Amino acid sequence: MTEPSIFTRILNGEIPGEILADTDRVFAIRDIAPQAPVHLLVIPKTQEYRDVTELAAGDPELLAEMVAVAKDLATEHADGEFRLIFNTGAGAGQTVFHVHAHLLAGGLDEKSLGA
Ligand code: AMP
């Protein structure tokens, strides 16, 4: 059996984390090491998809739900405009292999693409 990811453990209340959005299939938390004034993580409740390519192939509707949740959060926590980043692969900076989107918003530096 796969070990629960850090995000699953936060969802289950085993590790502290403020849940900022909670739908049937998606939740969101604040990133512990923010790289922008608003830096949230939008995460499917299932950890069966390791990255966005697997998610897009396996459940495109769930990916679309993540985007809809991101939009709502950007409106709630910033001015509605946002950057959505999926690090995909260790070489691209992915450290948690439970797919998640970095939602960056609120006074973004135009030159910075990093999450
Ligand atoms: P990635 O490097 O794209 O896999 O993103 C993983 C993100 O999870 C990083 O930005 C971390 O700062 C964040 N992170 C790791 N542990 C926690 C935690 N306990 N609570 C919130 N965010 C976390």
What this model shows, in words?
The protein is of the alpha+beta class and 115 residues long. It has one domain: HIT-like (HIT family, subunit A). It is built from three helices and five strands. A five-stranded antiparallel sheet has the order 1-2-3-5-4. Strand 1 (19-22) and strand 2 form a beta hairpin. The structure holds adenosine monophosphate. Adenosine monophosphate is lined by residues 6, 15, 17, 29, 31-33, 41, 87, 93-96.
SSE arrangement:
Layout: H1 6-11, E1 19-22, E2 26-30, E3 38-44, H2 52-58, H3 60-77, E4 83-85, E5 101-105
Antiparallel strand pairs: 1-2, 2-3, 3-5, 4-5
The protein binds adenosine monophosphate.
Adenosine monophosphate is lined by residues 6, 15, 17, 29, 31-33, 41, 87, 93-96.
Question: What would the keywords be for this entry?
Answer:
binds adenosine monophosphate, alpha+beta, HIT family, subunit A, 115 residues, 5 strands, 27% helix
Please give the largest β-sheet. 5 strands, antiparallel
**CATH topology (fold) name:** HIT family, subunit A
CATH superfamily annotation: HIT-like
Q: Strand content of the residues, in percent?
A: 15-25%
Element-level helix/strand string: HEEEHHEE
Distance between the termini: 31 Å
**Tell me, what is the CATH class?**
Alpha Beta
Rounded to an integer in angstroms, the radius of gyration calculated over CA atoms is 13 Å
Total separate domains: 1
Helix content: 25-40%
